[in-house]
Amino acid sequence: MGIFYDLPQCGAGMHEDAPLRQQLAHLQQQVAELQATCERLQTIADAVYNWEYWLAPDGEVVYISPACERICGYHPAEFRANPQLFTQIIHPAERAAVSRYWRRGCSSALPHERTFRIRTKDGQERWLHHTCRTLTTAAGVVQGQWHSLTDITEQQHAQAQLRESQAQLQAIFENASAGIAVATINGKIIMANQQVTEQIGYSRIELAQMPMFTTLDPAYHELVKAYIAKLFTGAITSFRLELPLFTKTGKIFWADAAISPIRDYDGAVRGLMGIIQDITERRRVEAALHEQQHFVRKIAQTIPSILYVYDRHEDYNVYINRQVTAVLGYTPEEIQTMGRDLKRLIMHPDDVPRLLANRDQLLHADDDAVSTLEYRIRHRNGAWRWLRSQEAVFTRNAEGQVVQLLGVAQDITTCKSEEERLQAAEAQLHFQATHDALTGLHNRRYLDEMLPRLLAEPANQPISVLMLDIDYFKRINDNFGHDAGDALLRAIGALLAAHLRRADIVCRYGGEEFVLILPHTPLDAAGARAEELRQSITALVVEHEGCTLDAVTLSGGVASAPLHGTTADACLRAADAALYRAKRNGRNQVAVAQPDLPPQPNDDLGGHLLGEAVE
């Protein structure tokens, strides 16, 4: 805004006033330019992303940027009105330390900075990085302190997650049940976990001083080198071999070795990582199992159920009898060819987690424990078949760990179909027992069950009850017939249901009376909802057999717990009394229950007596 002056207009003195007029015009131009500059500076300051503020030497807030509201939820005006708010929003655990930091900073001419937490207006915890510097004029006069606050909440969370991830990865690396080793492209071992040292017998220092192939049986050197060469060329992404390794004592143990390349950001191979599982015992057991399985096969062919042997380490059925063909349409060879992919290929995905959980329980069970599970398998023709499997521990290794499970599976598809039919029938019966046949809404029985239950739940939010009654409903039946009355009730029921929130409950309470339960709804909001419903029903147009029914009005009573009571009976009586008052006062209106209102003489909670009493 510029500064304007009333300049002389008369001709007599204009000549003498010309210099003054020029000075005033020049001054006016300077003021306008200064104001424009100030406005631009203000715009720039307000557009700064960080929270900036300027405190005068006496602590008065000279300037605070709008960004403070985005960061902490408080408007700049709130800090101007209460300078102590700067301290109050600091996290209680850090308030004392930050106050000391501010006092030291105020007494220092040097810039200072600190990271701390605040609590925003809505109670969230955020991390801020604070920097402060003293403002002085060219003459060295202190103008106060300029504070800058940067929201680093996301960075803090990311750093914490990174530290946690690194710690977890290190813990996984060191505590993995498998041996894990990392080597350079030249074959020098640069990392090995504790499991590797226990498997090989060499210390980490010793491993770092020997070539990667030192412990490998020489007969396998060329094979492994050929696979590694394919890794470097990209022909394969990893490989897995069963290899004989030499321990420090010269003993040979068999290793299941999975080798993968370590690549840099450009995709170039910079090293190799090997995961080593000692399978010496497994190979010994496999030989013994070969004889056992031969015996099992002879017996299995005579069993009418599916018989199978599941190997935990191989993660597939190492044996399954030919009954699988009769039940599922697959040959035993096809099932075994699926291998580890069987669960993915033909088992229902919803049932896989339960199967895995059941098998995990068997790992800690006694040998005589039997686990039963029902699950779905896709038949060769595409149909889902229900099986009931019973599994038990079949073999253990020398350490007592479960190696294989023996299972028997029966086709229970027919039984499950009958079970589902019975469940559907029970669900239908329950629906019929808790719903009104005419409107499809919940009935009074459901209300009598749910309202006490809702009121008994520990909650600080009110629960409101709306009791609604159609005015002069009998006239619809008299003028148009009972079928028309039923059509009207259905239409009103549909309208009420359409206006429900997810937590709301609407019931046909009896005759032309409806009750709505509105959880987490105070009395005033419930009254507004009731008024909206009254207006909607008044505007409702219902057609029946080519005839437009007369418009109807609605009277309603509203009560709320705990204001009008903490029991279902008290709330319904309060709403009923309010409904009676609405009827008595002329109908087509909503009345709100009054606290401690004595019950009316016609407060039969059947609801229909109210309507009859005032019709």
CATH class of the largest domain: Alpha Beta
Order of strands across the widest beta sheet? 2-1-5-4-3
Query: Which overall shape is indicated by the principal axes computed on the Cα atoms?
Result: flat
CATH fold assignment of the largest domain: Alpha-Beta Plaits
Strand residue percentage: 25-35%
The number of helices is 21
Biggest beta sheet summary:
5 strands, antiparallel
Give the distance, in angstroms, between the N- and C-terminal Cα atoms: 71 Å
- The total tally of domains equals 5
Unreliable residue runs = 1-8, 599-615
Q: Which structural category do the helix and sheet elements fall into? A: alpha+beta
Number of strands: 22
Mean pLDDT: 86
Rg from Cα: 41 Å
What is the share of helical residues? 40-55%
CATH-level-4 superfamily name of the largest domain = Reverse transcriptase/Diguanylate cyclase domain
CATH architecture of the largest domain: 2-Layer Sandwich
In a nutshell, what does this entry contain?
This protein has about 625 residues and is α+β, with helices and mostly antiparallel strands.
Written account of the structure:
The strands form 5 sheets. The protein has a 5-stranded antiparallel beta sheet with strand order 2-1-5-4-3, sandwiched between helices. β8 and β9 form a beta hairpin. With 615 residues, it is α+β, with helices and mostly antiparallel strands. The protein has 21 helices and 22 strands. Helices cover 42% and strands 26% of the residues. The two termini are 71 Å apart. It is flat and about 105 Å long. The protein folds into 5 domains: 36 residues; 110 residues, Beta-Lactamase, CATH 3.30.450.20; 103 residues, Beta-Lactamase, CATH 3.30.450; 112 residues, Beta-Lactamase, CATH 3.30.450; 180 residues, Reverse transcriptase/Diguanylate cyclase domain (Alpha-Beta Plaits, 2-Layer Sandwich), CATH 3.30.70.270.
